[in-house]
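>> Question from a student workshop board

For tomorrow's exercise we were told to take the sequence and the ligand below, predict the bound structure, and bring the output to class. My setup keeps failing. Could a helper post the expected result so I can at least see what it should look like? The ligand is 4AD.
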Amino acid sequence: LRHTRVKDLLNSTNTLHEVNAKGWVRTFRNNQFIALNDGSTINNIQCVVDFENTAEETLKRITTGAAVSVTGDLVESKGAGQKFEIKVRKLEILGDSDAEKFPMQPKKHSLEFLRENAHLRVRTNAFGAIMRVRSVLSFAVHNYFQQKGFVYVNTPIITGADAEGAGEMFQVTSLPLDNLPKNEEGKIDYKKDFFGQHTNLTVSGQLEGETFAMALGQIYTFGPTFRAENSNTSRHLAEFWMIEPEVAFNNLDDNMDLAEDFIQYVIKYAMDKCGDDLKFLEGRLLEEEKSKPQAERSEMALLEKLNFVLENNFKRVSYTEAIDILRDSTPNKKKKFQYLINEWGADLQSEHERYLVEKHFKSPVILFDYPANIKAFYMRLNEDGKTVRAMDILFPGIGEIVGGSQREERFDVLVEKMKALGIDEEELWWYLDTRRFGSAVHSGFGLGFERLVLFVTGMTNIRDVIPFPRTPQNAAF
Ligand code: 4AD
Ligand code: MG
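>> Workshop helper replied:
Here is what the output should look like for this input. Compare the format with yours to find the bug.
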């Protein structure tokens, strides 16, 4: 008898004779009721053990975390909250779990504790739900682009290019650490550490993606990305997943339309497919909110917040307008608001972004036309000579979720910009070929996948939405 997934048993339209389920014990009550979870759904199936006819030895081994196989009939449940349960005829312990030692006790654990046990936290309700939502969202990403005829491109993980020019790269070496090539001064020569070449882990697949967009028209990447920035925030990871569409002949407005449509599609998709998980996560959040002072509680519950994003257009605001709003919002007498003052030309800090999104517009915001000197070299220069066709999408509770731009398609302007920034033209000879041969207007953006998962699940720390987070404190496990 092959086992049936718990989700399918619970969704059955009728009672069933002789079914088998396999999973892990969440709880065992009154020597009789097993709450069994197999990861197929947030919901456990209740399995009623015939304790009078089961050996005492076996009953003792039904502990939280143990793997079991139950065989019996799927019958209507008298218990509240569940339609069916399994009346167990045969019970088999597949793998014991020492009740004293198993770290995932049936109680609420702190997120910090769970992070230290990333290999086991997925056995909790919350992390099971988060990881299922994450999986569905990544499928939604592919669905969206595939339906629109985009080509999925796997850009390299090991590369010589610093796409963002921010110097936040992890070096890759093929040589034993004590045998790295040295220069005349006796210092390690990183220019030659990968079989004689210089390489690092990719910070973005954009530049390679652009070369494909200039042949295939519309492409997207979806892969791991690495940033060696030492920022210990709840929004940054050293290893994260990024989705980067790139489209030939799209200008910045087209790029905004695409980003907005795409984000709304994937959120809607997750809401349609992950109802139970999102309802559970919403409940978890409401519980957490209760412990906060009234003023700090969020105004919307999770599903309401997601619906809001689906039903309202993102506000499109230029950087210059945003600076004006921030200046006006700053009553200069009241010292405590002074952090909101900002000068034209400065990069926005996260408190500025949060003010715009959460206090001023109360909606997702697309900021565009940033000062050239705070953005990457490849963005298209505007007629004013000082701003570029950049766009960042800011989300409530998240801040920047998307960074993108219309690209500088003019060879001479691009080369001049690279010169000014000291970017080696020879190293990027292949990138410049896109502008040498058949250059055209094109645009793209990068969506940080974990920031999207954060938003959809209502979690607040990015370490809690990726299976094994890589951060400055925790890279090895
Ligand atoms: O703004 P970023 O650095 O843009 C790029 O990399 C462009 N090449 C994208 C493009 O135009 N194709 O990164 C894009 C997004 C950010 O908006 C953010 O959501 C996410 O990637 N991101 C991070 N997510 C988690 N941890 C980090 N350290 C991140 N850095 C960026
Ligand atoms: Mg950015």
